[in-house]
Amino acid sequence: MQTTFEQAGFDRTRIDQLTGDGPLLSDDWEHDTATSSAFWQNAQSMLDQLPPKPRRSQAETEAAAAILALTRAHRERFLQRHVRALYSRLTRGFKTFLRVDALAYGASSLVPGLTPTRAMVETENQHVQSAKEGHEIDQGIFFGHLMADPDCGFHVCHAMLLPHPETAAYLDRFLKTGRLDLGTASIERHPGSNTIYFQNPRYMHAEDETTVNPVEICVDLCLLDPASSVCVLRGGVIDHGKHQGKRAFCTGINLTHLYHGKVPYLWYLQRELGFINKMYRGIADPNHSPDEVLGQTTEKLWIGAVDQFAIGGGCQYLLVMDINIAAQDAYLTLPARKEGIVPGAANMRMPRFVGDRTTRQAIMMERRIECASPEGRMICDMVVPPDGIDQAIQKTIASITASGVVSAASNRKAFRVAQEPFDMFRRYMSVYAREQAYCHFSPALISNLERNWDASNRKM
Fold this sequence. Notes:
Elements: H1 2-7, H2 12-18, H3 29-49, H4 58-90, H5 100-110, H6 118-124, H7 137-148, H8 150-161, H9 167-177, E1 179-181, E2 185-190, E3 193-198, H10 212-224, E4 230-235, H11 255-259, H12 266-281, E5 301-306, E6 309-311, H13 313-318, E7 323-327, E8 331-333, H14 336-339, H15 346-349, H16 351-354, H17 356-364, E9 369-370, H18 374-379, E10 382-384, H19 389-403, H20 408-419, H21 422-440, H22 443-452
Parallel strand pairs: 3-4, 4-5, 5-7, 6-8, 7-10
Antiparallel strand pairs: 1-2, 2-3, 8-9
Helix pairs in contact: 3-4, 4-7, 7-21, 8-12, 8-21, 9-10, 10-12
């Protein structure tokens, strides 16, 4: 390793500061944070001496990889000892709820070098994905340890189930008008129900950095509206191309934005811990636990309405719906391996619907599931003619509201406590947080997108 650093042009003094296992750790917070921060900052200054990633020589590339491996190994050791003390300091002894972005950047201020600063990430986001250093992997390591700790992980989940910080600014307007358009998502009130529409038609309603906040705000409004008891999730109308004038559900992550480096790592966590978990578990308040056992959330029944297709993340939504209605010609896919990422919580949830083998085939082997097939009907409760979806939605809502929805939340909780208790979700998210970070910056992701998506030739 010393030879690698020498070939990359580092002087002996800098090399000696970096080689080895890093600073010795104790149980002393002040000592370990001081020595570890100095170690990480020295390593970062060495990385900063190297040319930009695309212009590095072989020796410089190997040196950068070695620096990152050494510093990440030390982050693992540091967090194994101190993650609970770190989280307690960030949240004032678990008294303050912080969302994932505030936690990630709060950690970078409290323990410099542990996670990237906001400025580092913003600089990285100016580059295409393949040219990034991958500093956000350190956020994944951080959240992997946070979610692995039962108390810290549960507290993070609780924080992310609270209303989005911007929701309050829209609540009164929506309650008065029953309608709100946030650009990439909108919400409309109908008799007894609210409908959220995906609205990213240029990218076939794909999900990206422009959709995550509007969708979460709309989910909050759905759940907080006292005038409705059912929530409907549906795609908007496509305004161009061969699908012009037709509705489509959702095509999952925006692969073009992903390739061009516009999807930040924290997007994955905000999506899974935020609005998808709210659909599944309801919206929480700061004064009550959101756990199914003796906890309290505000939740409603959800209906997914699939026009044409539910691809990737679109398919993931269906796994947290209470009722799914699909057109006879619609299909589902979950091509996560082909994309090079982990498909949210689908690895945990989809086997409950179609079994382990079909799930593995969908994720690992790109299996397409027709909604009208036996497997598709295990996910879709009703499969109707394409022009019959509106009527099916209306009939379903009428049936639900006519028979009363008082027991809906109770039955949802009873299902969850048996199928996916909160601690199971927390543990899954610990693995997801770490693995998705490495996938997000993997060379395989880039090659997959170039080979399967022709991403280098697609315009933003």
